[in-house]
Write a structure and sequence with these properties.
The protein has 201 residues and is mainly beta. It is built from three helices and 13 strands; from the N terminus they run βαβββααβββββββββ. The strands form two sheets. It has a ten-stranded antiparallel sheet with strand order 4-3-2-5-6-7-1-8-12-13. It has a three-stranded antiparallel sheet with strand order 9-10-11, with no helix packed on it.
Length: 201
């Protein structure tokens, strides 16, 4: 795939992490403040997907509650086990992470507004295909995807199109790579942009 660099002025800002005892509430507040839609989080006990609907964060854990098999691979969102979380949408991404001293940090990368000084001016987008060849529906329009002989599974926050034998066109994450041209062109930071099902064309 040819990489095409386009103008994508963006700014980066730190986000205060004073009180993250209730990580769900903190993420919901940030999603509302910045207009963010999707959640991808990594915890000690697995991957957590989520989607914000009308100000409420629904995670793969909630979507799996009526499916005993899915519950095994959909851990709850807990501050004690969370390593990092990304809330994202087309215009920005908030990254929350815990450092080696168990201290929380967060930053927001968003599109620059008209007249705003940008930290980066150019970027290119890259679709990263997620695994999942077969699926079944969970509640709240989530889809449990399975791949390979090992039965690798995760529950994405979309109702994907499935074939007659539950075949799934795997979704992909759109990732935006910002570049810096100080001396030579290089990727300086990347953020998540969108979650889409692969085109059937």
């Amino acid at each position: 795939m040819k990489r095409e660099i386009h103008p994508h002025p963006a700014v980066v800002k730190p986000v205060a992490t004073n009180d993250i005892t209730d990580v769900r509430q903190w993420l919901q507040t940030q999603a509302a403040a910045h207009g963010l839609v999707w959640l991808l989080a990594h915890a000690d006990d697995g991957v957590i997907w989520g989607r914000v609907n009308h100000g409420q964060l629904i995670t793969s854990y909630e979507a799996a509650q009526n499916d005993n098999d899915a519950k095994k691979v959909c851990p709850p969102l807990r501050v004690e086990t969370l390593q990092q979380a990304r809330l994202f949408a087309a215009h920005g991404e908030l990254l929350l992470w815990r450092d080696g001293d168990n201290v929380w940090h967060a930053r927001l990368i968003r599109d620059a507004k008209n007249g705003e000084s940008a930290d980066w001016d150019e970027a290119f987008d890259e679709p990263q295909l997620l695994w999942g060849t077969h699926g079944r529906y969970l509640s709240s329009n989530f889809t449990l995807l399975e791949d390979g002989a090992q039965g690798l599974r995760h529950a994405v926050p979309q109702k994907l199109s499935l074939g007659a034998n539950h075949e799934a066109k795997p979704p992909h994450l759109m990732v935006r790579h910002y570049i810096n041209k100080d001396g030579f062109t290089r990727i300086v930071v990347s953020r998540l942009v969108d979650l889409k099902q692969e085109s059937t064309s």
